[in-house]
Amino acid sequence: MSRAEDFKIEVSTIFEGLRLVMRGSITEESVFPPFPEGDPRRIVVELSQVTRLNSWGVRLWMKWLWDLEKAYPSATLQLESCSPLLVQQLLVVRKFFPANARVRSVLLPYACTSCSAEHQQTFEAADPRLRRILQGGSSTILLRPCDECGSAMELEVNPKDYLKIFEKDSGTKAAA
Length: 176
Ligand SMILES: [Zn+2]
What we know:
This protein has about 180 residues and is of the alpha/beta class. The protein has helices at about 5, 55-70, 85-90, 130-135, 160-175, and strands spanning about 10-15, 15-25, 40-55, 75-80, 100-105, 105-110, 120-125, 155.
């Protein structure tokens, strides 16, 4: 399978809008499909299955997202299940997400403290547990134990990085 084939966006209709599920690696070979016709009120982009993003991919991604906003000026743009990969980009690339986009949920990666099993958990941005976990520091223990061995699991990313994306997010909200 070539890398270009590896990348996909699946489009489906949801209440008052569109849901776009992105999969695979975003590189210079990625082909973004044309936007569907219509006048959606909201667009949800689901990102949990984006596996890789190189520097060319970042440029294509940004162009696509900004074009998406232009194509549907009356729609709200919601980003769902932002993975650690995307959060990392958001921290280093200015305008990685358009100003009007909202992060609706994030994926937090955890690793077991005894068997190294990995687990990702989705949290809604508005979930007060997310704020508590992120403010608790890197040793924060996940609410549920390891599926494999029952031991405690630990957050595998720097919670401060995740807090920053919400600071950015609330900053753009305040400016809007
Ligand atoms: Zn375990």
